[in-house]
Amino acid sequence: MWLPCRCTTKYVAASIRRGVSASSLHALRRGRSSWNSAAFMPESAGFEGVSGRDALHDYSVSHSENFWAAVARQRLNWIRPFEAVQDCDLSQGRIKWFEGGKLNVSVNCLDRHVHTCPERVALIWERDERGSEVRYTYRELLEITCRLGNLLRRHGVKKGDCVTIYMPTCPLAVASMLACARIGAAHNVVFAGFSSEALAERIRDAQSSTVITVNQGVRGGKITELKRTVDAAVQSCPTVRQVFVAMRTEKRVEVTDRDFALEEEMLKEDVVCEPAAMDSEDVLFLLYTSGSTGKPKGLVHTQAGYLLYAALTHRYVFGYHDGDVFGCVADIGWITGHSYTVYGPLANGGTTVLFESTPVYPDPGRYWDMVERLRINQFYGAPTAIRLLIRYGDQWVKKYDRSSLTTLGSVGEPINTEAWEWYNRVVGEGRCPVVDTWWQTETGGICIAPKPSEPDAEIVPGMAMRPFFGIKPALMDTEGKLLTSNNESGALCMAQPWPGMARTIHNNHQRFLETYFQPYPGYFFTGDGAYRSQEGYYQITGRLDDVINVSGHRIGTAEIEDVVVIRSDEAHLSDFILIISVTQFAKRLPKTRSGKIMRRVLRKVVDCDLDSLGDLSTLDDPAAVQEIIEGHEKLL
Length: 636
Ligand code: WTA
Prior knowledge:
By secondary structure, this protein is α/β, with parallel strands linked by helices. It is built from 22 helices and 28 strands.
């Protein structure tokens, strides 16, 4: 079983005290101490009487419409300007932004940069094989995106269709996402480590007629038979008419009537592809994420609001500037890959790294070797990987030149103090602010992070701290009452809508309302708990439900059971190597006679609370509990 890292209030208080006293470490200063909001954020130049970061944040929340309208006009290219800034009502779960406006996301990510700087590098593909990186300029990426868009159109993919992408992180995967955006189709990227059952379930729910994949995946020196997984999946997906297969390796794979060789077909297409004029609220993508129970949820993100929010947070949380190289090591199968490998950096005309490998391949120096070779300025990763690397020792980091780094980001789970300190001191040589960014698939982009802040503002280890512009967090007590003072813990909610929010769950708006809007009427409920310090900073304490975070990915108990327990005979384990270091294996799980896993018993074992295992009379085989208890003791 996986043991989540829980942060107690005591720990929070201690780290805050440390944060204040050790000012040389945490109060990271950069240049001037007086801070001009218009110079920092040109979009805010017209906001009257606003100076300083906190004033700008106050303005973004109290004059939300003015704020978002100004930012949307300046950051995005519109085919037709929007008429209404927002039409939102959290009590109804209604969220609409920039209606009346038309735009194309791929034009915002590609064409406009091709006009100004065609030869700027858009993608650096850090292939699994170290030292064999490949660069794509904006001109080249636009060209392959257009070819792909034309190909999909020729094969009948229309505005409103949904294309499933089952590919590792690579340029053709990014181009596939952008090609969908270009022709107005939605994409549904499925993490290429998921099993054929998980893939099939997502294809069926999305009703995709088209799947894009690769012959084989290469990760950590190992080959995965991705095309074979697709073949197995589509057997139970009657909607699938066609599968496009890119060649990641030389290996030829079995083809059926519905398969097409992607690169060969692309060569037949024109390099110009007319972009579809999309409404702000048309669907951009679905992304499935695990719920605590039942089917995965296909969260729906739309065009303008999502792109704007991804771009703005990328620019200001990480301090991204033109010419920087942004290294987000998340797989594109997760929301982090969507927002901070693809959409945010490309909307900003940035250079983004596509990381195909693992943190320990071919050795534990992989990240830092890459930082040196590619001159990465902002590095964004998950605490699990950091904790794993700490175990291998500092020499793997120090071997490489990390002087290009300016900001270090963390996402996916709480970052414990030890990992934070190591990241800051060893990786960043104490020079680089560590931004612990809190957000979710549902929020579209980062909602709470230490940056942006004024240059001399403190950063407290292990705390996400400050709400981003336009974000107004709220904490609720167990009775559902709003907690109004500081130094309190509660259920983390959002009191105001923002453009990056998910709009619904595909095919299940009722579940969307029940999960996020009904628990605390008038608020968006995140599912996480948080503590608000005396100073008003936020620290996330973890999920309030059954969902677990593994190496920065949200995984429900269902997926773990699927991969680790039921399918342990298959190769999928390699994609979950990070799960393994914190997983207790069991030959069997305690089940009821009707076959349901007794999760409450597992939870008690993990909490070492053996005296209150509760009613075990429905257990099929009591010996299974004993085995689990013994296995857990060994793990401790
Ligand atoms: C957790 C990942 C603590 C949280 C972007 C959230 C975090 C879930 C942090 C979303 C953080 C994410 N500190 N916990 N900085 N960032 N989480 O949808 O429980 O894969 O609800 O999105 O990850 O996971 P998801």
